[in-house]
UniProtKB/TrEMBL annotation:
Signal peptide: none
TM segment ranges: 37-60, 66-87, 112-134, 140-158
Protein name as it appears in the record: DUF3278 domain-containing protein
UniProt KW keywords: Membrane, Transmembrane, Transmembrane helix
Keyword hit for Transmembrane: yes
Top-level division of the source organism's lineage: Bacteria
Length: 174
């Protein structure tokens, strides 16, 4: 009997760019990669938070801004490290290859581009909202619209081109 995928596991497969069913070995590898990535981010982040707390309690000028910058760069570096680890492991175990028959290529590419634009839209909305909260920009300004469109397009195009690269054609079984 096939094990039903949890919502979290489907989420991991989506963001890792893994398509189709996984056998037991590949499933355990995906879970191991996810667990290791969690520890790559969470354990060092504790030290970054402690450093930011210590800096915010020092008697220096701009201590809050400095603590914020430490948290921001710490999170950024740890996320890049985790993403690099995940991509390396997925490539090593060949988990991102999407095997499709010749007759299904058009539908698969359409599905990939649709999910890429949805991801890009989500990314554009989220990053524009965060940027506007931090910079106190007007949500109706031309700059905000340009930022939203640029972020959405760049993320969607990068995501779509990257995912379509992993399509592998297999012979029809007819």
């Amino acid at each position: 009997m096939e094990k039903k995928n949890s919502l979290f596991f489907r989420y991991m497969k989506y963001w890792y760019g893994i398509y189709g069913p996984l056998d037991e070995y590949k499933r355990s590898e995906v879970e191991r990669i996810g667990n290791n990535a969690f520890f790559i981010v969470s354990l060092p982040m504790n030290f970054v938070m402690i450093l930011a707390i210590v800096v915010s309690n020092l008697q220096i000028a701009y201590k809050t801004t400095l603590a914020y910058i430490i948290m921001l760069f710490g999170w950024f570096i740890l996320e890049l490290t985790a993403d690099s680890y995940i991509l390396h492991q997925l490539k090593k175990f060949k988990l991102q290859i999407y095997e499709v028959e010749n007759s299904q290529v058009k539908n698969v590419k359409k599905k990939i581009w649709t999910t890429s634009w949805i991801s890009g839209l989500f990314f554009g909305v989220l990053m524009t909202a965060v940027s506007n909260v931090i910079t106190h920009q007007d949500l109706t300004s031309f700059y905000t619209l340009f930022e939203f469109l640029l972020l959405t397009a760049v993320m969607a195009l990068a995501n779509g081109f990257e995912r379509t690269r992993h399509i592998k054609l297999v012979e029809d079984e007819d």
